[in-house]
Specification:
alpha+beta; Cytochrome p450; six-stranded mixed β-sheet; 48% helix; 13% strand; binds protoporphyrin IX containing FE
Length: 410
């Protein structure tokens, strides 16, 4: 193992290189084993890939802050590509105020209220696809479903699937370096950014949706109208592509493992557990950065103040120090405690909604589809932060009409 003159483990790995992004899990073991804290010489940043250290850094927001950006770019020195998020790229007390406004709009009750509409949409989609034979698990399922339900839940005037996907892709690429992936997706920044901004205006949002509910905090003086627009933008940035990638990964896990699909078929109410385990196993959001606010010693390594630290959520979610047989997808596992939704004050505020989407969709498919198999080689999608598929050829065999799952689905 190479070390710096001060004895800190060094890695030459480029976590934003195509080789890495095409199969990130292949590299994680080395990063974890190199040490609790590793110096990534390519970018001059620190990295943590073990569960304990990642978890602790996520918890300790006062030392590992987000306001200098949760990407490689350091907002104290570089101008961000867009006005920073009031949630993701903020620290308390500003973060707390913004988070309260969104939490008031996206309560557990609100999410429960979405269940019937989401389930209906999932059952319809599963019914449409089950008899079709070969489908693309990404375009026909993982994109089609969230785009259908999410735009309506937020209250967007236009469905705008293409723009939502393009915006998510650029935002998550932009957390990485200015490599080809980032530059290519930012070429659409002006056009797609203008579309997104227009959707976030109060009068563009339909009454009763999540967007309108965020604006309700303007009326009681908790936030300004400009802040509300940025908070609606947060939902549009963080709520679509992440879920699309997550659903695609869940389908991939189940299609590769007939025994796991069978377990889900036998009891489709395991759908929530299956989605949770796929999040642990595949970690749609692979990494986020933090910036140190003070000198801090982690695992015997002194990290100075003002340094960037890359947290490998995906590597933490498969750390054998935390999980038994971590590279095995098993929906019977207790996947609780994974950091696929982050942890601490920035933990995903849309997690309940994402979980609802995953659960109702997988349940509907398990009731309608007898066999779910790969029909060709999946094509991975490269993104500096997200890891999943660009296309996932699937063969769907409809369930026998008399099987218990189908009867229960009505
Ligand atoms: C499977 C789908 C999803 C995954 C894997 C995911 C993952 C994450 C992660 C890892 C974080 C933590 C960021 C950090 O610590 O810096 C986060 C934060 C966030 N997520 Fe999600 N997310 C998903 C779906 C959603 C949805 C559906 C929404 C909106 C409805 C959403 C909105 C947000 C927002 C606004 C934040 C920032 C919270 C804050 O900084 O306080 N996410 N998400």
């Amino acid at each position: 193992m190479r070390t710096t003159p001060g004895g800190v483990p060094v890695s030459a790995v480029d976590p934003f290189g195509d080789d890495f992004l095409a199969d990130p899990f292949r590299w994680h073991g080395d990063l974890r084993d190199t040490g609790p804290v590793v110096w990534l010489e390519r970018y001059g940043v620190w990295a943590m890939a073990r569960y304990a250290e990642v978890h602790e850094a996520l918890r300790d927001w006062a030392t590992f802050c987000s306001s200098a950006g949760v990407g490689l770019s350091d907002f104290r020195r570089e101008t961000p590509w867009r006005p920073p998020s009031l949630l993701l790229e903020a620290d308390p007390p500003e973060h707390s105020r913004a988070r309260t406004a969104v939490a008031r709009a996206l309560t557990p009750r609100t999410v429960r209220g979405l269940r019937d509409d989401f389930s209906y949409a999932a059952i319809r989609l599963a019914g449409e696809l089950a008899g079709r034979g070969t489908v693309d698990g990404v375009a026909d399922i993982a994109e089609a479903f969230p785009l259908r339900v999410f735009a309506e839940a937020v209250g967007l005037a236009e469905p705008g699937g293409e723009q939502l996907l393009a915006y998510g892709n650029m935002a998550f690429n932009a957390f990485g370096p200015r490599n080809e992936l980032t530059m290519a997706s930012l070429r659409q920044a002006a056009e797609v950014g203008a579309w997104i901004a227009a959707q976030c205006a109060r009068d563009a949002l339909t009454p009763g949706g999540l967007g309108a509910r965020i604006y309700a905090s303007v009326d009681d003086g908790a936030i300004s109208a400009d802040e509300a627009a940025l908070l609606v933008r947060s939902l549009l940035t963080a709520g679509v592509d992440t879920t699309v990638i997550g659903l695609g990964c869940a389908l991939d896990c189940l299609a590769r493992d007939p025994a796991q699909w069978q377990l889900l078929r036998e009891d489709p109410t395991r759908a929530g557990a299956a989605f949770e385990e796929s999040l642990r196993y595949a970690s749609p959001v692979q990494t986020f950065f933090r910036t140190t606010t003070r000198d801090v010693t982690v695992g015997g390594v002194l990290i100075g103040a003002g340094e960037k630290v890359l947290l490998f959520l995906a590597a933490a979610n498969r750390d054998p120090r935390r999980w038994d047989d971590p590279d095995r997808f098993d929906l019977r596992r207790r996947a609780n405690g994974h950091v696929a939704f982050g942890f601490g004050i920035h933990a995903c505020i849309g997690a309940a909604m994402a979980r609802l989407e995953g659960e109702v969709l997988l349940e509907a498919l398990a009731r309608r589809v007898g066999r779910l198999e790969l029909a060709g080689e999946p094509r991975r999608r490269l993104n500096n932060t997200l890891s999943g598929f660009a296309s996932l050829p699937l063969q769907l065999t409809p369930a026998e009409p008399w099987s218990p799952g189908v009867a229960a689905a009505g």
